[in-house]
Amino acid sequence: MLLRKICIGIMLLICTVIYAENHVKGMRLWPSPESTRIVFDIDKGIEYKVYTMHSPERVVIDLRDTKLNADLSKVKIANTGIKKMRTGLHPQNMLRIVFEMEHKVFVNSFVLEPNAQYGDRLVIDLESDEKQAILALFDLDQKTKKTPPPQDFIIAIDPGHGGEDPGAIGPRGTREKDVALAIAKKLKAKINAQKGMQAFLIRNGDYYLVFRERMKRARSKHADLFISIHADAFVNKKADGASVFVLSTAKASSVAARWLVASENRADLVGGVSLKDKNDQLAAVLFDLTQTANFAASMEASKHVLQHLGKTTKLHKAQVESGPFLVLRSPDIPSMLVETGFISNPQTELKLRDHKYQDQLAVAITHGVKEYFKNKTRIAVR
Ligand SMILES: [Zn+2]
């Protein structure tokens, strides 16, 4: 009898070894002001289940036939809302990962395809409750500042990409998301030093926001201008120079622009969008109807910015270009996408990393913005 039990035990053990086919190979945490994103590096086709449990608040992830091939204890959980983390192997090779939370959270999960930096991933978004999220949104980046005078023009600065989405990666490994944030921070400071203008950052750290969320943040602060900052790549390593883009529903004008539109719009797929955002297609159609009036203003602002950039750096195209960029789809806020340079060009990559050069770009954009608002009066009610 005992021998039989041992035999069954050994057989189970062998089965366990044979059938644990999937692996969790790594984990990252990306805290943002309203939520925390957990990302697991996984094998393609992994079967999983995510659910919450209460008292204490927990998020439980069960992964079928999965082995843990990573040291999760090294992941820092400070400021993520996660109190404790534990893992265990359950019968039939089910890997269970439990996060003990400080507060109740809402979970949303989906898998992501490989991008320039990572392979297949499982994403778990932990969102604090909606009311808290909205409060945090309004508090974003304004903790020490008073509400700006109503006559001040508000400029939303959107550093492209972030978190799991590195954007383009230069030959030396420079990531577009870092360059974009560095330039955006400098631009914010330069604009805030001007009289009658107030700038704020759409993203103030290393986390990803979907396009719709970026636009929502600009609208919630009644922005008068939206500037998305990027530093992209092209197949041709010699491609060089800055460009400014506005939204158009037509096909992008040049080959490089078409490439750029495709890679920017793909960001939500590689950076992390869930099924929740599928309404964007419909929203986009509705937006298009009101977009025409906004186009002229976007064009005017872009021309000023491009002109000043041309005094500081080489331009890729002498005219403002256009393309169907998702992030520029706000119907009522003049918007532009500034491509500060091709990070794929080895010389430009070095310059984009240089603080002085970043400063020069920020000054040039500020001059352009200032000229656009010259002789304009803010009439919007805040
Ligand atoms: Zn980009």
Structure report:
- There is one protein chain.
- The chain has 382 residues and is of the alpha/beta class.
- It has 2 domains: 13-130, Immunoglobulin-like, CATH 2.60.40; 146-373, 3-Layer(aba) Sandwich (Aminopeptidase), CATH 3.40.630.
- Helix content is 35%, strand content 25%.
- The chain has 8 helices and 15 strands.
- It has helices at 2-19, 130-139, 176-192, 211-220, 255-271, 280-312, 346-353, 355-373, and strands at 22-31, 35-42, 48-53, 58-63, 66-68, 82-90, 94-101, 106-112, 121-127, 153-159, 197-201, 225-230, 243-247, 321-323, 335-339.
- α3 (176-192) crosses α8 and α6 packs across α8 (355-373).
- The longest helix has 33 residues, at 280-312.
- Bound molecules: zinc ion.
- Zinc ion binds next to loops.
Strand order of the largest sheet: 11-10-12-15-13-14
Number of strand elements? 15
What's the gyration radius in Å?
Answer: 24 Å
The pLDDT mean sits at: 83
Structural class, please? Answer: alpha/beta
| Molecular shape | globular
- Residue share in helices? 25-40%
> Which regions are unreliable across 5 or more consecutive residues at pLDDT < 50?
12-18, 133-144, 274-279
How many structural domains in the coordinates? 2
**CATH class annotation of the largest domain:** Alpha Beta
